[in-house]
User: Which sequence fits this backbone?
């Protein structure tokens, strides 16, 4: 039963300096538009083009949808606060934001691992790819992604709902994330910290390790390619994927593996921006726009819109 006295929270945002609000508004509006429109274009291109109805692109479609949900959960509210100087969010609104953000966080991590596995099968077992990554396997993998993401989100949001918030109600962050909420609780957060640690080890560290193992096998297979051009192309793809994955996992592991007493929110806000804003913006560029089949699919969408 929730006994919180607090009915709304005050979100401080990225900075307390009013002279920077205008610049930050323009920067984050641009980031949101690039992330939203880029991922939306991927969704439309994959749905519209039947040639892209393969496991690789279905997983890319899922990643694009997750990125749209992640950025839309956080940035519009942040932009609204910058524009109106109304930094309050209701208790229910805060819990909703927390739920959808935590869901997208879990889904993205498991999707990265699933996509790495798909590439591992494609490169290491090309003759058996269509047999292994068939329709049923694709549905099963996406079901696992959804089940893990929803479970992760329900557990953490449920544990936050059990806490008592009796004041202060100022969140030193730019959205409702778990660490700053734990710092505001006037009841014990031990269970929350234990579950955060468990989730960080199993989801973040576990998925990152599995992703790296998949790419390790991929790189070993690439080294057996005889042509220098083939090696260069494959390495280019793998390296860009690994950079984005590392950009995502490193700050997530750093943020969630520590106890509430050790949080330094001014620094943590910058760290959080990497996995909430930067990665969803980079994903379309790294995973899709550099791909020739995806480029052809996007051109067909624009060609259809012209007519």
Assistant:
């Amino acid at each position: 039963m929730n006994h919180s006295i607090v009915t709304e929270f005050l979100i401080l945002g990225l900075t307390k300096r009013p002279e920077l609000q205008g610049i930050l508004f323009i920067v984050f509006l641009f980031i949101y538009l690039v992330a939203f429109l880029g991922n939306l274009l991927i969704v439309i291109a994959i749905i519209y083009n039947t040639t892209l109805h393969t496991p690789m692109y279905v997983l890319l479609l899922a990643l694009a949808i997750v990125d749209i949900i992640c950025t839309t959960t956080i940035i519009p509210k942040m932009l609204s606060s910058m524009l109106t100087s109304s930094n309050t969010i209701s208790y229910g609104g805060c819990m909703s934001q927390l739920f959808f953000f935590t869901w997208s966080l879990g889904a993205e991590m498991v999707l990265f691992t699933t996509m790495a596995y798909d590439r591992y099968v494609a490169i290491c077992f090309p003759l058996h790819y269509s047999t292994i990554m068939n329709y049923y396997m694709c549905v099963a993998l996406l079901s696992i992604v959804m089940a893990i993401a929803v479970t992760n989100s329900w557990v953490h949001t449920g544990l936050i709902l059990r806490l008592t918030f009796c004041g202060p109600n100022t969140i030193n962050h730019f959205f409702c994330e778990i660490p700053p909420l734990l710092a505001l609780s006037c009841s014990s957060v031990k269970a929350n910290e234990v579950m955060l640690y468990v989730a960080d080890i199993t989801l973040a560290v576990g998925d990152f390790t599995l992703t790296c193992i998949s790419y390790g096998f991929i790189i070993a297979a690439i080294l057996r390619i005889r042509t220098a051009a083939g090696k260069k192309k494959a390495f280019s793809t793998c390296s860009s994927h690994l950079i984005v994955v590392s950009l995502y996992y490193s700050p997530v592991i750093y943020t969630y593996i520590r106890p509430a007493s050790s949080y330094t929110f001014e620094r943590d806000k910058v760290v959080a921006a990497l996995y909430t804003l930067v990665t969803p913006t980079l994903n379309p560029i790294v995973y899709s726009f550099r791909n020739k089949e995806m480029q052809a699919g996007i051109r067909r969408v624009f060609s259809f819109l012209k007519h």
